[in-house]
Fold:
Amino acid sequence: MEASKAEQRLCTRLGLEPAAAERLVAAMRAGSSSRSAVVLSPKAPADYEPPFACADMSAAPWLPPRVYVPEAGERPAQYADYEAGLYYVLDVSSCWESAALAHVPPPASSLDLCAAPGGKTMLMAARYVPQAHTANEVNAARRGILRQNIEKCGLPNTEVSGLRPDQWAAEGKQFDLMLVDAPCSGQSLLCKGIKNPGCLGAQMVNGNAKRQKGIMLAAVQCVTAGGHILYSTCTYDPDENEKVISYILRRVPGWVAVEVPLLAAFRSGLADFPCYRLLPEHGFGAGGFCCLLKKTENIEQTTK
Ligand SMILES: C[S@@+](CC[C@H](N)C(=O)[O-])C[C@H]1O[C@@H](n2cnc3c(N)ncnc32)[C@H](O)[C@@H]1O
Structure:
């Protein structure tokens, strides 16, 4: 299999060995790496059992609480319980991206800055009952879907808003936990069989990296001392991942990237701070990137 220039470029940037590069290219071309999961909503009682057969996920100790992975061939969105909002359907990769929340104490206040259609908010709410959560989405049409999903799943103490990140920064309000599931080039969509022209090209990657840095520069202003940001994307390129985080760590004093022992097997070798990349070859969906950042209590003591 001859890789295209764009495919080669990505594999080189990821530092993949030839065999791993071939596996990634094959997955991007096959488009069959999607793997559905469901996360139970607050409407589902503690002893709720999904009405479909579920896979054994003991090989994924990082799986967040109240998440089930249907067996291949099951269609969880076809059941009445889905329509009733007892669970929300997403990709296993999304669940992987939120695994780092295991290391974050229940926040008194939280903001999902890029929230639609609501997957990361649902995963957070499955881990700890939101105390005062804001699900924010700048795109009005997507915000409508977000609101519907939140209402359908009965999330308590959750409001929906539509401010830009710079508007949040100007507001001066601070949160214990911020989710930044950033808009990105979406290279993993290829592995789900979704066409995404240009997503491997420098132009799309650079444009997204610039936007992500802007979002993160605003996000860091909205977090309390000792609070966290969970940054994630569904793309592979280091410019939209490791380099966004290293830019923030270099530029903004008082922030550190936090080790996530649950994700040790996925640790990126492309950064000298802890951050994690899931690839389709891992078998947990189309893949993604995540990094947990903490605002230190005492900025003077921060070393970089
Ligand atoms: C990856 S999606 C979020 C997915 C969502 N967190 C989930 O798990 O369901 C990124 C979102 O960021 C929004 N977005 C686009 N540009 C943005 C910007 N400049 N600032 C903040 N959000 C933006 C998009 O409309 C999109 O809904």
Q: What stands out?
A: The mean pLDDT is 96. DSSP finds ten helices and eleven strands in the chain.
